[in-house]
Each structure stands twice: as structure tokens, then as C-alpha cells.
Write a structure and sequence with these properties.
The complex is a heterodimer of chains A (169) and B (417). Chain A is α/β, with parallel strands linked by helices and 169 residues long. Chain A has helices at 20-23, 26-29, 35-39, 50-53, 74-81, 94-102, 146-153, 157-164, and strands at 6-13, 59-62, 86-89, 107-109, 120-124, 129-132, 137-140. Classes of the chains: A alpha/beta (169), B alpha/beta (417).
Chain lengths: 169, 417
Amino acid sequence: MDRDMILRGKAHVFGDDVNTDYIISGKYKFKTLDMDELACHCMEDIDPDFYARVQPGDFIVAGGNFGCGSSREQAPLVIKHAGVSAVLARSFARIFFRNAINKGLPAVECDTAGIEAGDELEVDLGAGRVRNLTRGSEAEITPLPAVMMDILAEGGLTAYLRKHGGFEL
Amino acid sequence: MGMTIAERIFSAHCGRDVRAGELVVTKVDFMMGQDGTSPLAVNAFRELGGEKVQDPSRVALVIDHSAPSPLEGVSNLHAMMRAFAAEQGVGIYDVGCGVCHCLLPEQGHVAPGDIVIGADSHTTTYGAINAFSTGVGSTDLAAAMLTGKLWFKVPPTMRLELQGKLQEGVYSKDVALFLAGEITADGATYLAVEYGGEVIDSLSVEARFTISNMAVEMGAKAGLMEADEKTMAWLEGRVTRSCAPAAPDPDADYAEVRECDLGGLTPQVAEPHRVDNARPVEEVEGTPIQEAVIGTCTNGRLEDLEVAARILAGRRVSPEVRLIVAPASRQVLMDAMDRGVAQRLIEAGAAFVTPGCGPCVGTHNGVPSDGERVISTANRNFKGRMGNANAFIYLASPATVAASAVAGKITDPRRML
């Protein structure tokens, strides 16, 4: 991923404490490694129509503690395979946050209050800014530690480690 | 300023003093994956170009979440884990061995002062024996299997001083639920939690695991306790290598210190669909239930089964209720048989399932039907957690679950002790 990439898409808004069971239920995730198949069930228990509605490039926008619960890496993967280009939240649970960056899904920590479903957003990772094009408002992105920015810029931990051979802090 | 337990452990591993907030790359002493996370780790290991696991003796794979397999898709992923373990010489705990978080300490893989990662969020459990242990994803596990190391941010620490003497009928699970309610689901995000005080001193090591297990339900990265005489006695015969327990300095620099007097604590129940929705059992008594579960990495150890058996001795599980018991390991099951605990539970009407995660993660072994209420000793009650989004899960101690199974409704266990 280009460090200066600008992402544009529509907001799908969720509340606080969206846990990884809601992102992808345990009843599905143990069966297969086919993330496209699992993506059909993304958010199913709290928003059954989410997968049908989401368009490539859209954003998940949430309140606090997004991704709490289990360590399942299937959670950021199914979000990515559903076509979502980034998750914006007031705060993230730590394992999800780390997994998202490791899989090349931008986990964007910023003030999400005021963003409503369907709002057109522009996420500028390089400049550290989120613009709400529908409402004309802006929010700053909490900067990532350098190592996480490097991992994200490579598209994930696998590509990062293949390039660097180890962790560089 | 002095150091917290987390700072001590990371400093010892880095060979220099490191403080909260610093990023470090350090050796991982032991690492684990389960059947929901290992298959992705195997794929990530291959994608990393991995040929040999750096030190197979520091890795264990555990088949516990869907064990034995209920479906061919699951079976194929289990086979993938077995093949990887055989190829790499990595230890595997197969169907029937038990839950990863019961097995790792029981089998002596974890020592005080260790840094341990697990591709499972409840890896915080081993903090109870003074290991800095935390949950990671599959790709981090793969990176650690390949390099033996991982990067960490040394976390700031929230110190919890738990004073007072727990009343009869109040257990470490009630403490864990109460703390989740007080601190909330994200109140300790990114922090290590250090537990201390009379309450922790008074608990057995088994009971302490329950509290560290649920540290992650407050968002914590680790749930640490000091190693005391009980810890060292518990480790005897399990851990043979030398270890370096880490104690906090009296002037350690904490992000926050909270004191709670738990002398007046009553049994707690977390109502659906949030773990931090904890309240005294008195407030929910009488709620009808259809399923009761005793087991999981939180409360499937011998003491937990013993408490349940004491309540169920001479009583019967209500005909309206299914009581499912999943011992947390084969050893727990054998010990429960030796002591007559398993027999008492079965005589009372319990249905035993294979040692493992049981119905907690919604794959098998007791998926509730629409509208049913379940009371469980597990650590999560999210909507859909047990495989049906139209069911309702209440979390409680083994005593409260056993008493509720007898009465057919949520019941204060102190009525049956």
C-alpha cells in the first residue's frame, strides 16, 4: 500500500464494542480458510444485510473498542474480503488493531462522532486526516508507531518480514 | 521510579532497563496456537518462506475449540495442524487433551518471568503464575515461530489492590465479573493489569487463573500476579527449568492504582450480551434457564468441578435444564474421576463432553435454541457466541451455575451450600 494513498468510500456506521464474534461468528470461522466464503457472514449477527450493502472501498465506522474479544485474524480478513478499505473507530481493542495492520487493513483511530451512515469519506493516511465530504468536517488520525506504519505500507506483516528479514524498530 | 512486573519481565528479556511505552523486539519463551487460529498461522508461516520452526520445543498446537471435529471442513483443518506439527517436530495436543489455557501451565510449558504468546485472546491466563502472556493473531504467531521473537510495546500498568476476605459462596469468578463491570470492556485497553492484595493472596493458583483469564475482558494485554509460595509449590513437578519470577518495586510507576474492598462482594452474574454487564445475583434471581455449562478455560478446572459437585450431591438437575460439563483437560477429568466428583455430577444428571472448549465458542456440544437462556462459567456472553444469535447467555461461577441448574432458574448458590 502506498503510504500516501487516499481512500474514498461510504460510511457504514456501528456503535461501541463491536466484538470479533460479531465481525465473524465462531460457528463459521472454524470450518474454512476461504475468506471470500466467510466474508458473506461479516457482521451477520448485528447487521444481517451488511454484506449485501457494502460496496468495494467503503468504510466501517465505529465507536470505541472496535474488535474486542477473540484474537481471530479472520476478523480483519473478512472485513477486507467484504471489500472494506479501512475501519475507522474512536478506539480499537489491541489484538484486532495489531491483526488489522498485520493483514494490511488500515485501522484508523480518529474521532468518529458525527459520521452518519452513507456519508462520503476521504481517508488520507499520509496526511493523517479524515474528511467527511458529505458534512464538510475533518478529523485527525492518531499516528501509528513507525514499525506499524512500515508494516501497513508493505501491505502486511508477511511482505514486511520477507523484505526486512526481521523486525526493525 | 521502580518497575512494574511487566517492565521487570521485558527488561530481563532485553538485557537493559525498558519502560512502559517503549517498543522492543524480544525472545518469546513459549508460543501456542489453537484450531481456530493455527491453520492461518501455518499458511502465514509458508507465505513467510518458512521452512523450519526456529525452536520447536517452544511451540505447542492445541486442538480444543472444535474437538472432536463436528464437520469435514473442521476435520481438514485439524489434519493440516497435525501434518505441520509432524513435519516441524512441534508438540501437538490433540482431541481430548483439553483447553489450551489449562494445558500449557498444567504441562509445565509456562514459568514465572516468561514471555508467552498465544493465538487466542485468553492467553492472559498465565499471568496468574507471573508470566507476561498475551494474545496475538495468526501472522504474529507465524513470525514468532520463524524467528523466535516478536515486537512488543511495553505496556503501562493498572494496579488493582483487592482487599478483604471473600464471603462463603463467593469465588474468584465473582471477583473477575465484578472487576469487568467496574473497569468495563475497554477500561484497561493496552494496559497490563497487576492484581494484588489479600484476596489474591488467599486464592489458590487454580482460582487465580480465572481472574487473569478474564483480564482481556477489560481490554488488558496481560493480567499479572506475583509468584508467591503457592505459585512455586504449584509449579513443582511441572516446570523443571530455572525461572526468574518478577516482583514489582514498592515505588513502581503505575498508570493507575485502584483499591477495592471485596469483603462485601456477593455472587455476580453478567447479563446478556456484555461481560461488563455484571450485577449481584440477587438482581437476576428467578430468571428461568434451559441450559447450564460448567467448563472452559475460565472455570473448567478440578476445583470448579468440585464446587459444582458439592452443590449437586444429593440433588438433581432440573428436568427443564441440560447441564453440560466440559472438563478443561484430560488430567482434570481423571482427577475428577479419582475423587468421585465426576460420578456425583453424572448422577445428578450432568452430560459430560470431551475435555476442551465445549460449547463456549458455538461450534458444537450444546448450541442453544432460539430464545433460550444459558448460564455458563465461560468468559464471554456476546450475542451469538454459543452459535445462536437468538439465545441469551449469563455468566457466573461454577457454584451459581450448579445451583441454577438444580433450580431451573438463576439461583444464589449460598442457598445450597
